[in-house]
Amino acid sequence: MEAMTSLDFENSFILILLCIFSTFFLFAFFFKKPKNVFDLPPSPPSLPIIGHLHLLFSTSLHKSFQKVSSKYGPLLHLRIFNVRILLVSSASVAYEIFKDHDMSISSHGPIGIDECIVFGSSGFIKAPCGDYWKFVKKIITTKMLGPQALERSRGLREVEIERFYRDLLDKAVKKESVEIGEEALRLVNVILGKMSLGRSFSEEERVSEFSIEIAALTQKIFLQQVLRKPLEKLRISPPFKKEVMSVSYRFGELLEKIIVRYEEKKDEHEGSEIMDALLAACGDEDAEYKINRSHIKALLAELFFGAGDTSSKSTQWAMAEILNNHKIFERLREEIDSVVGKTRLIQETDLPKLPYLQAVIKESLRLHPPGVLLPREFEQGCKIGGLYIPKGTSLVINAYAVMRDIDSWTDPDEFRPERFLGEEDARREHVLNFLPFGAGRRACPGSNVAYILGGITIGVMVQCFDWKVEGVKVNMEEATGRAFLALAHPLNCTPLPRILNILPSNL
Ligand code: HEM
C-alpha cells in the first residue's frame, strides 16, 4: 500500500542521492537495459541508466504518471534503472488485468525493510497470497470487518457517533472552529480501537501519532523497496533504514504494551473478537496457521495505519466538496431530513435509505482516492492486450487516472454525485473504472467500514450543523509527498448549530 502514495520526489536530497549514486556506482550494473526478448507494451523515450526516472519529477507521482500516459497511451512499459514497470491508466485495461490475471498479480510487490512493522515481512499487506494471508484474511473478515461482525459491533459505533455529535455541538456553542480531518481521524481511531481491542486508546497510547509518523516515512520505505536489490548487490547499507526502524521499534513497543494490557485485563472488560482469535492462534500448537506476537503487532499496526488516515482523508475531501457546492449540501440535507427527520440523530441503519449521501461519498472517492496508485507485481508472465509481460515486472495501476479516464466517465474532472444514481451505469460494462479500494483478491477488506464511517460522519455534520468556512471557498489544492492523497491546506471551519430537537439518548 506504500506506493499508493502521492510520492512527488520533489525532495532534492533524494534526487541528488539518486544521481550521484547512479553516476558513480551503477553504470556497470545498469547501463545494460533489461533484455527485451518479448513483445513489450510501448515505452516513452528513455535515458541511459535512469530509464524513465526523469519523467516522474514534474509533480506528484500519480500526476506525473497521468501526464506520461495521456501522451503515450494507457498501457506503458517504463524502466527505472533496471526495474521494469507496467503502467496502467485506463478502465478497460484494468478490467482485462483483474478479470484474466488477478491470481498472477496478487502480490503487493517486494519488501523494502523486512523488520519494519508496516510493509515488513511479518505484516499482512506484503504477505504473499499463501496460507498466512488466507488465515489472517479469514480472521479479520469473520471477527471484525465482514457484514456479520459489523452488525455485532454496531452498538459501539453508535455510542461514539453520538459522542462525536455532542463534541461538535459543544464547539458550535463556544463558536470554536474545527479541522475536519483531525475530527474525523479522532473518531475513526476511537472506533477502530474499540473494534479491534474492545476499548479506546488512552492518552499515552499515541497510536494515531505513530500512524502519522509512519505515513510520513512511506516515501523512504518505497524508495528502499525500489533500491533494495541494487543496494544489496553493491553491499551498501540501506540509507533510510535507521530512521524508519526508529519509528518502527517505538511503534512495536507501544503495541506490545497494548497487547500485554489486553491480556492482563481480559477478565475485566469485554475484549474483542479479533484479538481473542489472534491470541488464541498465537499459543495454539494445532492452529490452522501458527502465528507469533510479531504477526499480531504488524497486523494491528497495518490496520491502524491503513484505516485511520485513509478514512479521515476521504471524509475531509468529501466535506470540502460539499462545502464548496451549496446545492449539493442542501440536497443532502433534504434527503437526510426526509428519511431521518429532525428529532433523532442519523444512524448506520439509515444509510441504505440515503442513496444521494452514498453517491456523494463515492463521487468524492472517485475524484480524490486516498490511495492514488495500486502497486502489484507479476508473479507469473502473462499476455495483456496481446503483449507479453514477463514474470517479476512491477505493475502500477494509476487509480487516480482510471477514475478520471475520459473514455469511461462523462466530464471526469467535475464533481457530480448524480452519476452514481444510475446515470452512467450503462457505460460500466467491461470496464473497471471505480477503484478507490483496489480490486481482485487483494482489494481493501475495510471498504464496508469505510463507507459506514464516511456516511455516518458526513451525515451528522450535514444533518446537525451549518458550516462557516474560512475564506470564500475551500482551497482544493492537493498536498504533495503524503502517504495518502490529502488537501494541501487544513479544512478549518466553524460549526453553527442548526435548530434541531435531537432526543437525549443513553449517553
Ligand atoms: C476510505 C478508506 C479506505 C481506502 C480508500 C482504502 C484503500 C485501500 C486500497 C486502495 C488498498 C489496496 C488494494 C489493492 O491492492 O487492490 C487497501 C488495502 C487494505 N486496506 Fe484499505 N482503505 C480504506 C479503509 C480501510 C479500513 C477502514 C480498513 C480496516 C479497518 C482497511 C484495511 C486494509 C487492509 C488490511 C488492506 C490490505 C489488503 C491485502 O493486502 O489483502 N482499509 N485499502
Automatic annotation (TrEMBL):
Q: Does the keyword Membrane apply?
A: yes
Q: Which InterPro entries match?
A: Cyt_P450, Cyt_P450_CS, Cyt_P450_E_grp-I, Cyt_P450_sf, Plant_metabolite_P450s
Which Gene3D superfamilies does the annotation name?
Cytochrome P450
Q: Which UniProt keywords apply?
A: Heme, Iron, Membrane, Metal-binding, Monooxygenase, Oxidoreductase, Transmembrane, Transmembrane helix
Q: What is its main location?
A: membrane
| Residues spanning the membrane | 12-31
Question: Where heme is bound, by residue?
Answer: 444
Subcellular localization, as worded in the UniProt entry: Membrane
Q: Which GO terms describe its cellular component?
A: membrane
Membrane-topology descriptor = Single-pass membrane protein
Q: Name one GO molecular function term.
A: oxidoreductase activity, acting on paired donors, with incorporation or reduction of molecular oxygen, NAD(P)H as one donor, and incorporation of one atom of oxygen
CDD domains cross-referenced by the UniProt entry: CYP93 (cd20655)
Cofactor(s) named in the record = heme
Report the sequence similarity comment from the record.
Answer: Belongs to the cytochrome P450 family.
Q: What is this protein called?
A: Cytochrome P450
Q: Which organism is it from?
A: Brassica oleracea var. oleracea
